[in-house]
Structure formats: structure tokens, C-alpha cells
Amino acid sequence: MMEIRTPKTHKAKRVLEKRAPKLVENGKKTLILHGTKTSATVSSVLMELYRLKKGGAIKYSRRNENIRPFESGGETSLEFFSLKTDCSIFVYGSHTKKRPDNLVLGRMYDHHVYDLIEVGIENFKSLLSFSYDKKIAPHEGSKPFICFTGEGFENIPELKQLKEVLTDLFRGEVVENLNLTGLDRAYICTAISPTKVFLTHCAIKLKKSGTIVPRIELVEVGPSMDLVIRRNRLPNEGLRKEAMKSSKDKPKKKVKNVDQNDVLGKLGRVYIPEQEVGKIPMADKSKGVKRERREGKMKKNKEEGSASKKLKESE
Amino acid sequence: MDMETDQIYQIDVGNLLAFNPNHRFSSAPSSREELVKECVTEGTKLVQAIADTLFNLPSTETNDGPLVQLPPPTTKLPREKHLPRPKPPTKWEEFALKKGIQKRKKDKIVYDETTDKFKRRHGYDRVNDDNDIPIIEAKASDEPGEDPFAMRLDDKKKRVGKQEKNRLENLKTAAKAGALPSHVQLAVTGLPISGTKTQPKKIGKEALGDVAGLAATSTASGGKFDKKLPGEKPPKKQGKHHKYLPIVPRYGWVDEEKEQTNKVLGKLLSKHSHEILNVGKAINMYNDKKEKKKSGRSDKSKAKKDITKKKPYANKAN
User: Compositional bias of type Basic and acidic residues: which residue ranges (chain A) (predicted)?
Assistant: First the structure.
């Protein structure tokens, strides 16, 4: 017995439609949570990350003991939370003796884990420790500049993945129109060694210059930390291909003479040249011969005016 | 934008992203501050590069400031959900395609010929409303005794039921192809029962409570000491309810308890058995029966006998 369930209120319907798979997607939301134990650094990192991403992030305050992103069974809770909150990126913080000040950045595809990267936090400076002119403080939800420096981001696969994940994390919504006065923040990531990345958050000061383009000055406001690459998990090729698919990948090459019909399926057109009926070679020779015989006989009858048995016998 | 020949940045304006693949730390940075300073300067250069492209884009002036149209981002990032799958055609759509039936746009207001007015197609005071028909003419194929209005209602119910079934089937095929519309959910309500077509009737909350109460009364103490499940509400009237009449007669009042027991005894012993039988009614009933037998039981609609008035122990009195 199946029942069709539709939302009874317009609000519920709008929520469901917002979460449905679309051609052009909404900005990814981030889920911030922590594990069994967290140190002061980790909890402040998570809190500040939440503040930076205020509009598009959800922070869970309870500890989650059964989430272990790198183990096969430990992702079910994460996937459930991702489904419930409609979040496709997660930041999981924890602190153990073996992995102190640990942060796992992960992404989801269809609410299943797509890829993971684990980083350790070092030299963390909270945003409260920076002193700057409050007027230039970045506003909540403004679109940031993201800058990567260092050849490591191109050559080393882990750093390449980190670059992609950080872009996804900080990007926010993809917008078409941008107000130039609203540009006030930038994230600077520098690869200082093949395994270490220095990340900082700066506010932008636009200074007058001679041209339309203002001179940019960056002032550090924000949390700054060193990320040490620990473990990572890349997505498998098939999943990656599917996730990277977009609707306008390549225009379908028009195959000629083939038609798709919903009812009949695939239809083809075949062109046949003009048939000259008299010259078609016949398979059954005997019949053709018979007709020729008959016609020949009729002709002869007309000419001679009498049936000739001799003609029959001869043929 | 090129600053020096070996310093070409990879800029993605759509994402406000810039990447400098050519930077190398020339010397090991002496201190943390030096390192930070160098990183920030490099970052500034990159942001300046993006801003150069950004501010040179055609902008429109609005109240809040200059608005630019960003080009689409060039870095490809993975999607968060799969691409929406195409919906398989419904049974009607397949049929329409086969027959070449085109969809026609229907007007909201239609001309009604019975009343020469324009009426709406759906809703209050609509064209061809089923409830508005005053007279339905009888056809030769109609049997007498059938209510055509009730038949129309029945037909409509059947049509609606068939449509719902078809809709469910279409949604099932869509769900199989992974293309269920986002606001619809298919839920399994019960186990499939083979053999019977009737759905098991769901017992309501009050009915369940009543049954629990009934079961409680069957216990010796009337359900007073029954173990309660967590969340179960206390029953309405617990325990045995026995109304005890006052034994001590009050001044001026009849001794009620004595009267009660006497009444019961009297009925049992039939001391006043003649009062139990209503002689007049019995005679009438007898006469009726006799007349009926004579007439031959022609009229079907006769009032039923009043069987509630019993004659207990009428024979045993003597």
C-alpha cells in the first residue's frame, strides 16, 4: 500500500524545492561539528570558522563520539546530518594524543562522502587577538577574494586537493552581479612547505589611485593558522566524473538519420535508390521463365495465328 | 595580468580566485612575522591583479554602488547533488504522443449555454456543475428504482479513484527512474496483503483507549492496579463502581435499599405476576395475528412486534 505524500503548506513545498537537485545549484552549506575531545584551539577554530561563514553554516555544539570520517562505518552519522541540514561540506574538529588539534575537511556528493582531507592546526591566532580599525572590519556574508601562492598547490596532489576544498569552503554563493563596494575580505593561503599551508584572513582597504582601479591594501584581521597536511582521501574516478558533470559539457553531435521516439524508441531512416522493376534479378528463375514462356507464346500466337507445339518442345 | 614574465597568475574572476604558481621563498624566513609579512604582500599582489580585471568590467550604477556582471567561474568544482534526471513520460503522455494529440490551452472563463452567461471553468458557480442539474431524463436502459443522481456521484467517485490510481502508477515509474518530483514523497503505509483487497482499518486513538479501558474492567479490581505503560493516560473511571444506597433510612424518605431488594425479589417470586403481563396488549396482538392469517399476509410493511416487553415466568406463576 503506497501513499502519495505532498507538503500541506507552501513553506514546506518551498523548502523541499530548495533542497532538490537542480541544474544550477545553491551555495554549499557547511556543517561544523566536533568529536569526542576538543582542545581550546580546535573549539576556537570551529567557532571562528562558523562566524566567518555565518550565513551558510550550521554548527553543532554536542560532541559526536561515533563519527570517524576515515573509517568505513564512521560516516553514517555525518551523512545523516548532511541529509537533515542539507550541508555538503563539513568541518570536523577533534583532539587526540596521536593527532592533536585535528581538523577534517570533507565534501559530500548526494549526501555521501565524496572526499576528505585531514589537517593539523599550528600557530593559531584567534581573530580576537588582532587589533585593527573597526571601520574596515569585513561584513558578514560578503564575497571573499581567495588567493593561493606557491608551486606546491600545483605539483603536490594533497595540496591540490586542499586548494579545491578551501575554494569550495570559502567561496559561498556563485553570484552573477557583484557590488564593488561590498568587497572587504580576502583569504590568503601560502604553501610554505610541501606539507604546510599558512592561512590567514584579511580585510581589504581600497585606496585612491590614479586609475579606476583602486590600490588594494590588506590588513590582517582574522584568524590565522598553519595547516599541516595529515591524511587525505581522494574521490574515486567514477564518482569524480559524475560530480564534475555539468549540463552544458559538450553539445551533442547531431547524428544524421537517427530519431528518438518516446514510444517506439530509436528510429532510423533508410534511403533506397529508385528501383527498376523489370531489371531486378529474380531469385526463383523457374517462375520468371514460365512467364516469359507464356508471353512468348502469346506473341507467337498473334503472329502465326495457330498454336505450335514444336515451340513448346524446343524450349 | 602579467607583472613580470615569470609571474603569470591564474585568475578566475567568477570565483574571485587567484593562484600564483611561481612563488618560491627565496630565503628561509627568519621569523614568523617575516613569513606572515611576505605572505600578505604576495596576497596583496594577487588581489590587486583580480581587482584590476574586476574594476575594468562594464559596471552599472545603482543606489548601493557600482554593480558589475561577473563572468562565469572557470575553475570546475564538484556538484553537491546529482543532475536532475529527466522524467519518464506518463501513460497519458505516451498515448497522446502516439495518437498525435496536442495540448490545448483552456480558458478560465467559458460561455455557459444554459444560462447565457460567461462562467468560470473551475470553482464557485462553475460551468457544468454536477450538483446543478435539476432534472435527469430517464433512458430506456434505466431500471426503475435507480437513483440517477446517486449514480452520477458514484461514477464520479470511481473516476476520481481511477485517476488517483493512475497518478500513483506514474509516480512509481518516475521514482524507479529516479526522477520523482521534489515535493512528492511515496510512503509505504502498510504491508502488502495478498488475497484481500481491503486495507486494514486503522484504529483511532480514542478507540484504542476505550479498548484498553474495557480490558481493565475485566480484572477483579476494575483495572486499578494494572501496570501502566509510559505515556499511557490514566483511565477515566478506575476501579469498581458500585452505588450503595443508604441503609439507614432518612427521616421522611423511603428506605431505598429495602425497596430495591424487594423489587428484585418480587419479580423473581412473581407475587404480582399479573402486573407483569399487559393483558390489553396481548389481546390486540392475538387479534392482529388472526386477521393477518385471514387476509393472507399481503402487506409487507407491518410494524414489528415489540419483543422488548417480555413475559418472564408467566407460566411458572401457576
Answer: 282-295, 301-315
